[in-house]
Amino acid sequence: MAVPVFCNSCLCEPRNPTPRFSITSCGHVFCEICLQKGKKDECLVCRTACRMLVLSKEISPDIQSLFMRVDVLCKKYSKQVTQVSDFQEKYRKHLLTYHKQKIAKLEESLKKVTQQIQQMQCMKPPEKTTPLPFSSTSRNPFSIPSRKQNVYSSYSVHSSRPSTSETMETMEIDPVPSPMRKV
Asked: Which positions are tagged coiled coil (predicted)?
């Protein structure tokens, strides 16, 4: 059962033979008898310019819903909301699954590359250092040579930049995945 319709001017309800009822753009309902008494395109209640729409079964669902009981509307729209919610949940799960798979592949690639780097470091021959013929003691470049030492023996022959292999040895690789990648 719908909400009872009545004229906002004479308060009559639909009866047999039923006069046609119209709704204004300002939200008032009038029977056709009262509409004929008033001015055309003017609301009988608020006296503003308005448009009229005859109430029938062919009017838009939005207008029809104005005359439905609230509990009926709730049931109708709760079904729609549930369908939309279910669709969006499936969509989010699908997207999440895709990203989890992508992250797993990237972590697997990182793990393989880390293992390859570790294997390369293990296979690297030990670095050969040639002892300086002049020095048998300290390599501190700031030490003052004694009379018995050669003047050139206290200076370091190494360059100020470490070699690539020395840099690789000092680099630390964390094989554990970052907490930001965990899902």
From this structure: 96-123
Sequence spans of domains, the chain: 1-68, 69-123
DSSP collapsed to 3 states, the chain: CCCCCCCCCCCCCCCCCCCCEEEECCCCEEEHHHHHHCCCCECCCCCCECCEEECCCCCCHHHHHCCCCHHHHHHHHHHHHHHHHHHHHHHHHHHHHHHHHHHHHHHHHHHHHHHHHHHHHHHCCCCCCCCCCCCCCCCCCCCCCCCCCCHHHHCCCCCCCCCHHHHHHHCCCCCCCCCCCCC
Q: Does CATH number 3.30.40.10 belong to domain 1-68?
A: yes
